[in-house]
Write a structure and sequence with these properties.
The complex is a heterotrimer. Chain A is of the alpha+beta class. Chain A has one domain. Helices cover about 30% and strands about 20% of the residues of chain A. Chain A is built from four helices and six strands. In chain A, strands 1-2-3-6-5-4 form a six-stranded antiparallel beta sheet. The radius of gyration of chain A is 13 Å and the shape is globular. The termini of chain A are far apart. By secondary structure, chain B is mostly helical. By secondary structure, chain C is α+β, with helices and mostly antiparallel strands. Chain C folds into two domains: about 1-40 and about 55-210 and about 220-310, no CATH class; about 390-435 and about 450-500, no CATH class. Helices cover about 50% and strands about 10% of the residues of chain C. In chain C, the strands form five sheets. Chain C has a four-stranded mixed beta sheet, with helices on both faces. Chain C has a four-stranded mixed beta sheet with strand order 10-11-15-14, with no helix packed on it. In chain C, helix 1 packs across helix 4 (about 60-95) and helix 10 (about 225-265) packs across helix 11. The chains are: A alpha+beta, B mainly alpha, C alpha+beta. Chains in contact: A-C, B-C. The complex binds zinc ion (ZN) (3 copies). One zinc ion binds near residues 474, 478, 496 and 498 of chain C.
């Protein structure tokens, strides 16, 4: 059964969330609110770097286009999906955990990681 | 025979002419009455907004009290100004009291900037929006009143309205002194 | 102001007549070309024809009159529909939905303020479009049926003064009766385009298909028929162009006039100027049809500065902004006219009679603007939630502070909070009289029925979560959304009419 994404707001910040798989969608508009317009675009641009990974392709919830696979430069790399048209980012549940642990190289990713930590305190891995 | 029919013709022309003049006059009269009613309506709109402001104030005081322990004077000033405005008798007294109340209100919103907890209170924010809007409406209602008063006065002064207005005792409407924009801005500038 | 409105009306009527003349003459020429009727009994006999040349010209009359009649009927039917249903059609095409004061008090207040400032008499109904692009329009044939619609994107990004400027612009359209006028004239232009299309198709068909009827005329050599055909062709080619030129020129003038009205009503031209700047910089595109585009505050079909000139319904944004920005030391129609002449060049925008009114002093900027610039985050969230409410979302609050928004297609009644994993359910309104009713309230299945009088049911009680949108489920199963700014202690279920009291 399919379920549409629900929105979760905490402290004035919002993400879209899938109740079935626990994945989250970071919308471009939300990133603009968090980082500012130019910084959000830079962040999304940097996060768009492709990666050759064999994993099922996801579709962007906004434009329905196939999203690109991308990964952070840290080890082990975090895999995520990115809409080629800059609509936003998709993190699977386990991807999200790792992303919060290691801030990616992209400008602004620290702020995004902090934000996610605030929103999902229980996901924070105890290292 | 011819004389009689001539007489009838003359009477008919005079009668028709009189009817036309009457209708014309009635049209002008109606226009004047409409303009006078518009002035009255505009005036009552100001009253509605002033009353709305009076009604909102007790609520505002109640909300602010808990947060503004050190601003008892500021709060008391508002209550005093409100009571003064509600009890005012003469037009001049009334105008002075209302403008004082406006000042006191802009003061309290300026002071509120120093109380982040109060600024986060949804009830306070709602009251601030209502009072800001009421303040605007008072200003716009005064401007609209002046426009209507000007319209009526022009009709009364200019021909042909002046003829009818003279006969039926139409009085020119008084203008509202619109406060200077600069004067209004002074207390508010401090918190931008 | 009244002189201005009256002068406007006169000019509108003149333009309508011009458009009507264009439409009717096109109808005449087409009719004459398509249905030639001969008065000559010896039709086909060259001698008989040359004998009565005047009769030849008469032959265009019946067809021409028929063409005029057809054109008028086409226009009249559309005009009637537009007059009586135009507002409703525009609103439903745009997807705008009516809101109450509690849904967005500021928007409501601003519309009320501008109603007072413009002496409109009756406050227009207020609509919101669920769209993050920034735009607004007015609809309705007169002040009694008028409505103002704005997008959620506009509410998300404009400060109070800017919103006031946009609303004033729309109210100005209502005061000037622009909506009705623009609808009527656009329908005429549409009819002209349609008739021309018919003619051109006929010609193409006639030339390619070799229809004997037309060739017969040509063969006859000379005669009125050929001339009529040529006239019809030229007319069919030129008329739509002319109609659109009239239409666009009129439309642009109206926009300037509405801007002037907005400056006069708000006594703060910087508000509308700021709004237009933000709208021009906006990258979102509103989805609208070509027919409704001229009704908006900025043309949603054009990129901000894609093409202007003769075929633009709206004047270039920069020019409108520049004119508004150069108004200083007071506002009046006369000052706007002067600024228009400085920026745009020659041209009488406002009738002489409207220029006499003295200038009003400028108003100070809303002191909340600076504070609002910092709180744009909240404003964005508010507008987004308003749009969600219009779309039938349900709003849940978790004890951990998370707010959960469920889309209408979301099938589950309760969810696990993604933040703290606690179960969260819709807050329910329940009867609070355990003596007469056992603790479990029997749930009647949700079905459509007439709202019963509130006395039929005991009032229900519900917990109120302040500061956020909240969905309350009535005992009948219907869900009622309450805005954060809803300050009353009770509301009524829209489906069954039960009173819902908040604790
Ligand atoms: Zn996309
Ligand atoms: Zn929770
Ligand atoms: Zn119900």
């Amino acid at each position: 059964m399919k379920q549409p994404l629900i929105a979760v707001e905490y402290n004035g910040i919002e993400v879209d969330y899938c109740v079935l798989c626990g994945g989250i969608w970071l919308d471009q508009g939300e990133l603009e609110l968090l980082l500012g317009g130019a910084a959000a675009n830079r962040f999304l641009g940097a996060m768009r770097e492709g990666a050759q990974v064999r994993e099922q392709t996801r579709r962007c919830p906004i434009c329905r286009g196939a999203m690109n696979k991308a990964q952070t430069e840290a080890t082990p790399p975090v895999l995520y999906d990115c809409c080629g048209r800059g609509h936003g980012l998709w993190f699977d549940r386990h991807e999200l955990k790792l992303f919060m642990q290691q801030s990616a190289a992209a400008p602004g990713s620290e702020a995004v990681a902090r934000w996610l930590n605030d929103l999902f305190p229980e996901e924070t891995p105890h290292s | 025979m011819i004389i009689v029919s001539m007489l009838f013709l003359v009477l008919a022309v005079i009668g028709g002419g009189a009817l036309l003049v009457f209708l014309w006059g009635a049209g002008i009269y109606n226009g004047l009455v409409r303009a006078r009613n518009a002035v009255k309506n505009a005036w009552s709109q100001i009253d509605v907004q002033l009353k709305r402001r009076h009604d909102l104030i007790p609520n505002l005081i109640e909300t602010c009290k808990g947060y503004m322990a050190h601003e008892r004077d500021t709060l008391e000033n508002i209550t005093k100004a409100r009571n003064l405005a509600m009890g005012a008798q003469s037009v001049g007294e009334h105008a002075r009291a209302e403008s004082q109340l406006g000042q006191a209100l802009s003061n309290i919103f300026a002071v509120a900037e120093n109380y982040p907890d109060l600024k986060a209170n949804t009830n306070f924010l709602a009251l601030q929006e209502e009072l800001t809007s009421t303040e605007n409406k008072i200003g716009f209602a005064r401007q609209a009143y002046n426009d209507q008063a000007m319209h009526l006065n022009n009709k009364i002064e200019m021909f042909p309205g002046s003829l009818v207005a003279g006969v039926f005792n139409f009085e020119a409407a008084e203008f509202f002194e619109i406060e200077d924009a600069a004067e209004r801005a002074v207390p508010k500038v401090s918190f931008s | 102001m009244w002189e201005l409105i009256r002068a406007n009306k006169r000019r509108s009527v003149a333009l309508l007549l011009l458009m009507l003349a264009l439409m009717l003459s096109l109808g005449f020429v087409i009719g004459a070309a398509l249905f030639p009727v001969s008065f000559n009994l010896n039709y086909g006999d060259p001698y008989g024809r040359h004998a009565y040349p005047a009769m030849d010209w008469l032959s265009v009359l019946p067809g021409g009159l028929l063409g005029m009649a057809v054109a008028s009927v086409i226009w009249a039917v559309q005009a009637m529909v537009a007059y009586f249903r135009g507002g409703a059609i525009l609103l439903s095409l745009s997807g705008a939905k009516p809101i109450e004061k509690a849904d967005h008090p500021r928007l409501f207040n601003v519309v009320e303020e501008m109603t007072i400032a413009s002496s409109l008499g009756k406050m227009p109904r207020v609509y919101v479009m669920d769209d993050m692009a920034m735009n607004a329009f007015a609809a309705g044939r007169d002040p009694d049926t008028a409505c103002v619609a704005v997008t959620a994107g506009l509410l998300a990004r404009l400060n109070r003064d800017e919103l006031q400027g946009v609303v004033a612009h729309e109210i100005s359209h209502i005061v000037n009766r622009d909506v009705l006028f623009m609808t009527m004239i656009s329908i005429m232009a549409g009819t002209v385009v349609m008739l021309s299309e018919v003619v051109l198709r006929m010609f193409r068909h006639g030339l390619h298909g070799g229809n004997a009827r037309y060739r017969g005329g040509k063969k006859g050599g000379g005669g009125a028929q050929v001339i009529v055909l040529v006239i019809a062709l030229v007319f069919a080619l030129l008329a739509p162009l002319l109609a659109q030129l009239i239409y666009f020129a009129v439309s642009r003038k109206r926009e300037y006039l509405a801007d002037a009205g907005a400056a006069v009503y708000t006594r703060f031209p910087g508000g509308l100027a700021g709004a237009l700047e933000k709208i021009g910089a906006d990258t979102h595109q509103l989805v609208v049809s070509k027919a409704t585009a001229p009704m908006y505050i900025v043309n949603p079909l054009q990129g901000a500065r894609a093409f202007h000139g003769f075929f633009a319904t709206h004047p270039p944004l920069e020019e409108r902004i520049q004119i508004l920005r150069s108004l200083a030391g007071g506002v009046s129609y006369a000052k706007y006219q002067t600024a228009y002449n400085q920026v745009h060049g020659k041209g009488q925008l406002i009738p002489q009679s409207g220029l006499a009114v003295a200038a009003a002093p400028l108003r100070a900027a809303d002191p909340g603007n600076a504070a609002q610039a910092g709180a744009s985050h909240n404003q964005f969230r508010e507008a987004g939630d308003l749009a969600r409410n219009l779309n039938g979302f349900r709003f849940l609050s978790c004890a951990c502070g998370a707010r959960i928004k469920l889309p209408p297609a979301f099938a589950m009644q309760a969810v696990q909070c993604p933040r703290c994993h606690a179960g969260v359910a819709l807050s329910a309104a329940r009867e609070n009289a355990p003596v007469t009713q056992p603790s479990a309230t029997p749930r009647t299945p949700p079905r459509r029925r007439k709202p019963a009088s509130s006395s039929a049911h005991a009032p229900l009680m519900a917990q109120r979560n302040a500061g956020a949108w909240q969905s309350v489920q009535c005992a009948c199963g219907a869900v009622k959304n309450v805005a954060p700014s809803f300050e009353m202690s009770q509301t009524v279920c829209a489906q069954c009419g039960r009173e819902i009291h908040f604790m």
